[in-house]
Amino acid sequence: MKLRLGLTLLSVSLSLSISADRTFTNCPQAWFPNANSETFEQGLGVNIHFTDPQPGEMKMIAAAGFRWVRMDFKWDATERERGHYDFSAYDRLMQSLDQFKLRALFILDYGNPLYGTPPRTEFARQAFAGWAVAAAKHFANRGVTWEMYNEPNVPMFWPPRPNVDEYIVLALTVGRAFRVNVPTEKLIGPATSGIDFNFLEACFKAGLLDYWSAVSVHPYRRTNPEGAANEYCRLRQMIDQYRPRVRTRSGSDGPSLGRVGDDDLTVSTASGSDRVIPIISGEWGFSSAWPGIDEGKQGALLTRELLTNIANDIPISIWYDWREDGTDTEDAEHHFGLVRNAYLPDHAQVYQPKPAYLATKTLTNFFRRYRFEQRLTVGSDQDYVLVFASGADRRIAAWTTSTDAHRIAIPLAPGTFLITKHTGESTTSISANRQSLTIEVSTAPIYVRRDHAIAQ
Q1: Contact in structure between 387 and 394 (CB atoms under 8 Å)
Q2: Which of 441, 382, 423, 371 lies closest to 23 in space, CA to CA?
Q3: What is the pLDDT of residue 83?
Q4: Relative to the CA of 148, which of 212, 223, 444, 448 has its CA 20 to 30 Å away?
């Protein structure tokens, strides 16, 4: 989860780079709703790097609209003596999460000096699996999702160089141990840096979809976030090709992730074609210190990233990162955060929000309890007009990937509409004529809703 600067460059090379223009036309399944899609806010999460939050910190995370927190569950920090586990730091974290009804996505990582890094011997693999099962038992029935390692396809996390066969053997060992000992706990993977199709296909061919409730990827890129839609489509087709299809009485395909909005996640052990294996965007962000990206543009890209995910049936989207990691203006890793680094104990907001925090809060508040319904065709494939529905009411997010702001006509019934910027400022009201509503779009999304206070 660290050193995003170098790893993002690798992610770009690993991913299938496809422009936003081609995304809409190349994949018929892109930008279409799932009949059982979540309401907007139910699957949003954020990465953290601590087990003991500062007072007021979890309140800020929850206030932004996040429902999930992703955190390293480190082997070397919880097994310092062979066979003896200390999960007390994570007990404290879970207590903090429970207070604000936040869900945990814990990453089972990395190596351990007692056994080796990464765990590549049979002895080390069995020890890793035993530790993982002990953790899952300790937090059983608490709604935790367990992720099988973090970015095993990069040398930093699988030294000295990635080896998909070694990862597969470890992941199979853990999957089998979960099935025997904690069959209702949810295990996902492989959390690849980028959407590494070669690595992912090797995992699927080896049978890991038998054990995983979802496939997690980190779709980092320096290009437009909308380009991920076509990659999701290709990955979904690959999952469908390799997912288990033989029905068993024992439900041996493992638990499914269920619908993430449920307070009690419904566990489905159905195998065969009834079992859906979703894609999770387990880590993805943009640094406000990258060339060409300032804090304002970071907020716009966050909004577009999350809108792209929800409109392409990604049930959980984890933004990287919560806090700034430092203050060095030249270090891109320091500036993925939604809030600044300094703790402000005497302030109502204990960390100073960046525009990206305001963008998150605006997005979740504006579309709370709304579900993605459709993408409207308004002329150019570069223009994005997404419609969200809650009962009979409709709300719209609109933007373009074109660097030239321009006007578009949205087919809406006559009436008065309110325009809100992605950072929360209300700009104006505007009237639709008999055929359409004309608005100006740019690379920063705007939100549109009908003004119900005015008789239409």
Answers
A1: yes
A2: 382
A3: 96
A4: 223
Would you list the DSSP string of 30-69? Answer: TT---TTPPBGGGGEEEE---SSPPTTHHHHHHHTT--EE
Instruction: Please tell me the pTM assigned to this model.
Output: 0.90
Contacts of 180 (CB under 8 A, 6+ apart): none
217: buried, middle or exposed (CB in 10 Å: 19+, 13-18, 0-12)? buried
Determine the residue type at 287.
S
Low-confidence ranges of the chain (pLDDT < 70): 1-26, 246-274, 454-456
Domain-wise residue ranges, the chain = 4-363, 376-450
In whole angstroms, what is the distance from residue 138 CA to residue 58 CA?
23
Just give the CATH number of 4-363.
Answer: 3.20.20.80
Q: Find out whether 32 and 373 touch, Cβ atoms under 8 Å.
A: no
Give the integer Cα–Cα distance in Å for 165 and 250.
Answer: 28
* CA nearest to 50, candidates 113, 101, 92: 92
Site of tokens 């079992």 = 275
CA dist 279 and 213 (Å) reads 9
Cis peptide before 160 (omega within 30 of 0): yes
Residue ranges with strand state E in 320-381:
339-343, 351-353, 371-375
Q: What is the distance in angstroms between the CA of the first residue and the CA of the last residue of the chain?
A: 50
Helix (H, G, I), strand (E, B) or coil at 231: helix
The whole-angstrom separation of Cα 161 and Cα 296 is 37
* pLDDT value, residue 24: 40
Q: What stretch of H or E contains 432?
A: strand 426-432
Q: Are 401 and 228 in contact (CB under 8 A)?
A: no
Predicted local distance difference test score (pLDDT) of residue 432: 85
| Domain 376-450 belongs in CATH node 2.60.40.1180 | yes
Return the amino acid letter for 135.
Answer: A
- Which candidate, 112, 113, 101, places its Cα nearest to that of 142? 101
Output the pLDDT for position 33: 86
CA distance 390 to 383: 23
b vs e for 260-296, b when ≥16 Cβ sit within 10 Å of the residue's Cβ? beeeebebbeebeeebbbbbbbbbbbbbbbbeebeeb
DSSP 81-141: BTTB---HHHHHHHHHHHHTTPEEEEEEE--BTTTBSS--SHHHHHHHHHHHHHHHHHTTT
Task: Indicate the burial class of 311 (C-beta count within 10 angstroms; 0-12, 13-18, 19 or more).
Answer: buried
Predicted confidence at residue 428, as pLDDT, reads: 82
